[in-house]
Amino acid sequence: MSRSIALIAVCSLAACGGGGGSTTSTPVSTASAAPTSSNPQQLVPTSFTVAFGGGASSQAGHRAPQYVGNGSNSVTITLNSVNGSTTLPTGLTASVTSTIVGSNCPCTVNGPLVPPGSDNFSFTTYDGASATGNEIATYTNTYTVTPGVANTQTGVTLEGIPHTFTITGVPSGTAGTAFASPATLTLAVKDADGNTITGTYANPVTISDSDTSGSLGSQLSINGGSYGTSVTSTASTDVLKLNYGGLAIATATLSASATGATTGSASFAPTRAAIVYSGPLDGATPEIDLYAPSGTGSSGSFTASEAGWTGATYGKSLSATTSGCGSIGTVSPASGTSFTFTIVASPAVGTCTITLSDGLGETTPVKGTYTTNGFGLQ
Q1: Once rounded to an integer, what is the mean pLDDT over residues 364-371?
Q2: What is the DSSP string of 215-268?
């Protein structure tokens, strides 16, 4: 005599949410496979109890489960293999889909008739009826099914399927000032209905940082691990941190992605400092005045710096380019922090512009001139 088994498919409190109460669902399709000459093996009926724990907590620092169970309207239970073989008995209906109301669970649903042995099942919930709409959660596990006894097993934890992401809590930063301690970011992984998934994700989530400048720039870490440009999160309990070493960087894009999901992103944009010029001035305006074809007055020197870019800690250079200076002078070197503007052969009276740049958008103009003075006697 075959006996029904009750496989308890319980969503862990870290992975599910919703209201209380219970209901028994009616399967949309049922499996039947009595022993025949071509299928002599006795099949065992199965049923599964799906529970969605829930309830919000107002206590600071504690997030109660509020998972995607509320959006689930149907569940499909599929027998994938028996004793490691995906070849199932002839005539067996491997999948059964049942109607559920996630907010009313725990609820009991029928699974397929299965052969005794080591049976592998998959569970998938949908936000539409009859396994339509979006897949909300899934889980796969193997159970030992023994005929003639009551099979009660626990350990099924539905895992939310990532669909969209938001990254919040990105701090501000200032070039030249490293973080005293890494900043904690909040990564919200959401299902297809926009519910934030708590617990383990069905697919791992990759969080990437577009900045590749190393430890002096911005880097990510997960659960206290090493810092780098990419980390992987597998559950909502993972702790994501951002560190910044103070280097002047272009805006860094922090992006979260997973298989089949829409990538979400946020920006980390440290405030860059202005380039500071140190040299001859015309009033308050940086200006190098040349007035002789050789010797004194044929060249002028100046220096420049930028917090978070130049100096011993960061060691970066500024570039110097000229515009309209061909008949006046040349600047050297092309990059560095100390520069010289030197007159050309056969110069012409006029003005031009020397532009200092860090390559990230910060620039400072320096005026270059060549003038002559003549005095006549009568």
Answers
A1: 97
A2: GGSEEEEETT---BSEEEEEETT--EEEEE-----PPEEEEEE-TTS--EEEEE
